[in-house]
Amino acid sequence: QVQLVESGGASVQAGGSLKLSCTASGYTYLMAWFRQAPGKEREGVAAIYRSSDITYYVESVQGRFTISQDNAVNTLYLQMNSLTPEDTAMYYCAATVQYGIHWRRQDQYNYWGQGTQVTVSS
């Protein structure tokens, strides 16, 4: 069992930046950030393969968000720049030990964090 603990959520103004962190208690194959805005379905934001550093992003955050990791401390990051009110959501860290999945397939992730709230005001 791997536990994921997120941190870094906050309230910021539009145009600002935040960096989210997710510390994992064990090794997994693929880690990702998802988010869920009020009244909307949860969506994949970005993902990274632990061994290769290959990354994926949803189109709406490309060029503004950067997913990264520090394997030495089993920590995943999401640097978010140029934030807009549309980025307001609960952000979740997720991890899977399954190979060959599509990174946006939520049902393929084995472990989820409790979420950290990001609120962007205009």
Question: TL;DR of this structure?
Answer:
The chain has 122 residues and is mainly β. The chain contains no helices and eleven strands. The strands form two sheets. Strands 2, 4, 5, 6, 9, 10 and 11 form a seven-stranded mixed beta sheet that branches.
Structural account:
- The structure is a single chain.
- The protein has strands at about 5, 10-15, 20-25, 30-35, 45-50, 55, 65-70, 75-80, 90-95, 110, 115-120.
- With about 120 residues, it is an all-beta fold.
- The protein is globular.
- It starts with a strand and ends with a strand.
- The mean pLDDT is about 95.
Following the backbone from N to C, one meets helices and strands in this order, namely EEEEEEEEEEE
The number of helical runs is 0
> Which outline best applies?
globular
Structure classification: mainly beta
Nearest-angstrom radius of gyration? 13 Å
Which segments are poorly predicted (pLDDT under 50) over 5 or more consecutive residues? none
Q: Could you report the average pLDDT, rounded to the nearest whole number?
A: 96
Question: Characteristics of this structure?
Answer:
mainly beta, single chain, 122 residues, 11 strands, 4-stranded antiparallel beta sheet, 7-stranded mixed beta sheet
